[in-house]
Amino acid sequence: MKVMDFSHSVMPGLVTRREVLRWSALAGAVGLLGGCRRKGTDVPLKIGYLPITDATPLLIGHAQGFFQNEGLTVEKPVLMRGWAEISEAFLAGTFNVVHLLLPLPIYMRYSQKLKVKVVAWNHTNGSALTVAAKTKITSFSDLGGKQIAVPHWYSIHNIILQLGLRTAGLETVIQDRNAPLGPRQTNLFVMKPPDMPTALSNGSIDGYIVAEPFNAAGEVLTHASILRFTGDVFRNHPCCVVVMKEEMIEQNPEWSQKVLNGLVNAQKWVIGNMDQTAHILSKEGNGYLPLPEAIVNRAMTKYDQETYGRSGTGAVHHPEWHERRIGFEPYPYESATRKVVELLKETRVEGDSSFLKTLDPEQVVRDLVDYNMVRQAIEKAGGLPQFDDVDPKSPYTRTEQIEF
Q1: Is residue 313 in some structural domain?
Q2: What pTM was estimated for this model as a whole?
Q3: Which residues contact 94 (CB under 8 A, 6 or more apart)?
């Protein structure tokens, strides 16, 4: 079966020692993440993104003029090849706003001592565990003896997958794919997401867990099956967050607030215009993503019980949660940050993760996230209850739900 080639949008996942050294050198070169010398609201907004639906609010903010409506000068968002590349460009000052997998700024701030801040959530959910149809995998318990690809060690994907394996009584191993694998062991490794559908179709892997639209691409192009949506395990979990430099926030508070105003309004618009959003993002639209509209639309809107419920593939166990395949809610709940840190401390990663042993979830909740700007933007836009899965009685607090 011929599978669409996405190799021009590579997304490597491993934070290697070489990359750490480059990040450290970049930080030193700009004076501990300096380089934000220009002040005022005339600073151009420079957005870096990866070609995934996680970037939607930043891209729609540009396409539909939400940033421009705030009086900002906005350069065309730049598509980057991978997480290491976008992080390095951000640290070097090429971009002043990016979206990153939530565990990445945790790694950057507390392992590498880089002064980055999470200023909002960019989206919720939007990922899934996809398996080849011929594997006959129908539950996490069936992943014993299998080879499963993840996009990055510091990702919600790796966290949720390993949580599922532990719940099923399986052991996570990180080893060469040619090494012997026991029936109760599951081997995890990093793979470029654009390569995942092809690897699944040719039998070199058994499954992958990744952001959209690569799950939708696997369904359409390889007839793969979605085993579980990650948001159906960890209800409305954060995935990619909006990240800025701490210095930029301190030196340009008015500019930073305008960026958050535009971002929040973009999310609000997307919720009511999912089909149009998919068109804008796709090759047939503005071409932000190198994918056809049919796949992008499926990745953003298809979540029906007939296809994915208990009588279908079983990818959705919790219809009572009333979720979307990808959701949009900008407020970074403290409870979710705390839970992600707690789970990350139990998650195996390749490389030096010694910083996790002493990492205090409460410290991260207080220190990593700026809550004020996004809350002001939300209130200016009409309040948080208009966004996905928000309790109107207590909009700025929630209880995390994780159920298999």
Answers
A1: no
A2: 0.91
A3: 46, 48, 78
